[in-house]
Amino acid sequence: MEQVITVLGLESSCDDTAAAVVRDGSESPEILASVVHGQTDLHSAYGGVVPEIAARAHAEKLDVCVREALNEAGLTLGEIDAIAVTAGPGLIGGVMSGVMCAKGLSAACDLPLIGVNHLAGHALTPRLTDEIAFPYLMLLVSGGHCQFLIVHGPEKFTRLGGTIDDAPGEAFDKTARLLGLSQPGGPSVEAEARNGDPSRFRFPRPLLDRPDCNLSFSGLKTALLRMRDQITSEFGGLTRQDRCDLCAGFQQAVFDTLAEKTRRAIRLYIAESPRDPVLAVAGGVAANSAIRDALLSVCASESVKFTAPPLALCTDNAAMIAYAGIELFRLGQCDGLDLTARPRWPLDRTSPSMLGGGKKGAKA
Ligand code: KG4
Ligand code: ZN
After folding, report:
1. Is the pLDDT of residue 353 over 70?
2. CA of 169: how far to CAs of 1, 52, 154, 252, in Å?
3. Class for the domain spanning 134-312
4. Ligand 1, closest atom to CA 187?
5. Domain spans, the chain
6. Given 3.40.30.10, 3.30.70.330, 3.30.420.40, 2.60.120.10, which CATH number is that of 5-127+315-330?
């Protein structure tokens, strides 16, 4: 019987301020509370996340989130065993706000402090929701991240590949902006694509000619811009149908590429771990039903189980940080008050990132 552990988690690496309480040990891991305060309204006028605005909002909202999470869980800080906090990667002002808040709580209540890699939080979520055993393959697709990881353990990851420029959610958001659709772009582009013809416009399928698992999305946005401008100069503007067809063509290109690279990642993973293979997906883009269908059919044809956490746990949240904290705590991992906030923090140190900073900050 494992020791019962209750951890308070904090997340503030991008544009969601979150706190959660997770307990593990008696039976399955249990989310006792999960509070998320999003910042979409604060950034909407700027067309992207403004780091300084994000950091100030995190600093204002973190203690509110902690109070709400403890109330929801019906617990006091005295009943918590450890504090887990996102210590990177992300927008540094926000990460620092979370780390400072966690250090304050840890020092005041004499609680162990655990710095968690935000990407590890996403990557370990299938163990929180479905108790998936190691090693499994993870596809992380959000506004800030895109990578294939073999998850061997709470601290052991192999990065098989990822985007060399934009993350897919970022490409959806930019596409929506180019077509005058609302933000976040993913849901609005998906809605328009439902009424569109994906074969009317020919979008490229970037990097499919290369055998690796790397992806590129920035060229799709440029292709869309060119098509939009051509229609506008020929016909004086876009009709609703033009917009739907552009969205459908763009979305199909993103998902064809993701599906094919997923097939390649699955084959690399299975060559290493052929028993009970599982592909898990996480990140906001996993909300898209077309991508779920595409991944499901790749998994069916490769005889791999497919799992996707519920949407609230695919997007940024603190339950994943608290749970990752529990896994690290069980390994004896703890940090001192010298824990530092890290804007970059690749999960797989042997496979350095090819990415620069994006609209949502450093992508590790
Ligand atoms: O994981 P997330 O909440 O935040 C981070 O990026 O960390 O993901 C948000 C991203 C946005 O770029 C949004 O446009 C995209 O996920 N997204 C979608 C859909 N819903 C959200 N992309 C495609 N289709 C969707 N239905
Ligand atoms: Zn994230």
Report:
1. no
2. 41, 22, 26, 14
3. alpha beta
4. 26
5. 5-127+315-330, 134-312
6. 3.30.420.40
